[in-house]
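Recall that a protein's primary structure is simply its ordered list of amino acids. Everything else, from secondary elements to tertiary packing, is in principle encoded there. The following example makes that idea concrete.
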Amino acid sequence: MSAVSGLALIPLLFTAPAAAETADINYVALGDSYSSGLGTRDYDDSACKRGPAAYPELWAASNATASYDFVACAGATTDDVLANQISALEQGTDLVTITIGGNDVGFADVITTCRTGSNADCDEVGEEAENEVRDVLPGLLEETYTAITEAAPSAQVVVLGYPRLFEMGSCGFGSIGEPKRERLNQMADTLGDAIADHATAAGLTHVDVRDNFDGHGVCADDPWLNGTTVPLDESYHPNGAGHAEGYLPALTGALA
């Protein structure tokens, strides 16, 4: 073996342990419907609407993990995470992902009111929700983040946010009007900014997915979010592309 070819092998010798480390990851996926996969139309768990097209499933399938526990559940609030999901964490958990907060401020009810009510109705419920984000949500997030880090003290905790739901412009018959879409996007930003601030303050890894979904909201030519659908509970949630093209690359990038 020549000196040059011998030296060429040195980087390989030093990079090999990194591959071994990825195989040791113990991953737990917590959260609400944006983590469980509601909206993808393919579920293994009909109660929590957990499915194989959800971003935690996609990440776990493409990475060598020592263990993987998927406990995110549609409709979950911070109280549900504390009561029903935290128990999945252990001292040896290495990675935790979570989306949470939207149900605590009644965002689903806000969307329903904006879809069926007047612009004034939408403004009113939007203001109420934003007050909840400012006054109530911080304490709930702090309690939840603290419980996660205490239950899994060695884990990297990745808090993923929510996308803006809508694009502006023409949207077809029966769609939500543009003023309401703008108002709902403003509320999504208020919620997203609060989650970012509190996750960062807690020393966790925050992943903002709003830019990833930009141009792919409801009313886009290539939407990654469902509009009003049947069944109704899948409305305004990421579809399969939203998880594969929106959430998964954002998570992968944060862990790179």
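DSSP finds eleven helices and five strands in the chain. The longest strand covers residues 65-70.
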